[in-house]
Amino acid sequence: MKDATGTPRFTRILVKLSGEALLGAADYGIDPIVIKRVAGDLRDVQALGTQVAVVIGGGNIFRGAGLARAGMDRVTADQMGMLATVMNALAMQDALESLQVHARVMSAIRINEVCEDYIRRRAIRHLERNRVVVFAAGTGNPFFTTDSAAALRAIEINADLLLKATKVDGVYTRDPVVHADAKRIPALTHAEFLERKLAVMDSTAVSLAQDSGLSIVVFDLFNEGNIERVVRGAALGTTISTPS
Questions:
Q1: pLDDT (0 to 100) of residue 177
Q2: Is 12-241 a CATH 1.10.10.10 domain?
Q3: What contacts 38, CB < 8 A, 6 or more positions away?
Q4: Where are the alpha helices (DSSP H) in the chain?
Q5: Tens-digit pLDDT profile for residues 147-180
Q6: The whole model's pTM is what?
Q7: With contact defined as beta carbons under 8 Å apart, do 43 and 228 qualify?
């Protein structure tokens, strides 16, 4: 969305996608139709004049925390999870490039044969050159979720907004899958989110966002065009922000 001066509403955003978002109707892996649709949504947002960065989880391939609970060494499990996010990031790069969108994958762990190392200044330069940047391998450290990586990268690249794309249409008072009486919360502060221990996003990520004044919008990814609607200012999902 542009104002009267022609300036985009948001100069730069970061979109956090869960790995499960790429599953479609499958039980494992990546649905080519789904990833191409999401890539199309990202292309449309970039066409508004907004710079786009992405963080993708790896839950459709491997969940480190789950295997750690089953007895695997947590550090090893998390490292395997990081590699799963690299695979998803490469798939997203391919989907974007098939739509004639320039994209770069930048990894927090060194895999120089397939993608670039994450370097903050270089990432910003890619964005300024109208390339979609897909951040892979989380923070590069075990024990941190990709939600935390998304908040960290958004802050590092000076993003105006963090978009948390999920399977539900916002933050609810209770789990809406389990509780029919759950109510969606249109807006709340970072502090309220943390005090109420709402589980849709990692508390470390929300704490990072709070410290930096970064606003978050939690919304339903599966309605095509929702990323663009959020960027255009539509009242979708739940906004988590700090009072001005």
A1: 79
A2: no
A3: 17, 21, 22, 92, 95, 221
A4: 32-47, 64-69, 74-98, 120-128, 146-156, 190-195, 203-212, 226-231
A5: 999 999 999 999 999 999 988 889 998 888 788 8
A6: 0.92
A7: no
Residue 7 clears pLDDT 70, i.e. is over it: no
Nearest alpha carbon to residue 22 among 3, 36, 4, 9:
36
Q: For residues 230 and 9, is the Cβ–Cβ distance under 8 A?
A: no
Tokens 């940047």 label which residue? 133
Band of pLDDT at residue 8, cut at 50, 70 and 90: low
At residue 22, what is the residue type?
L
Tokens (6 digits) for 180? 């029919």
Please say whether the beta carbons of 56 and 134 come within 8 A: yes
* Interatomic CA distance for residues 169 and 184, integer angstroms: 8
| Lowest-confidence segment of 92-96, 124-128, 195-199, 225-229 by average pLDDT | 195-199
Nearest to 53 by CA among 22, 13, 89: 13
Tell me the average pLDDT of the chain: 91
Residues 56/89, Cβ–Cβ less than 8 Å? yes
Rounded to 10 deg, the angle between the 120-128 and 146-156 helix axes is 70
C-alpha distance from residue 197 to each of 14, 22, 57, 166, 171 (Å): 23, 27, 21, 18, 11
Going by DSSP bridges, is the β-strand pair 161-166/216-220 parallel, antiparallel, or unpaired? parallel
Give tens-digit pLDDT for 54-91: 999 998 888 766 777 778 899 999 999 999 999 999 99
Nearest-angstrom CA–CA distance, 78 and 59: 11
Determine the length of the chain: 244
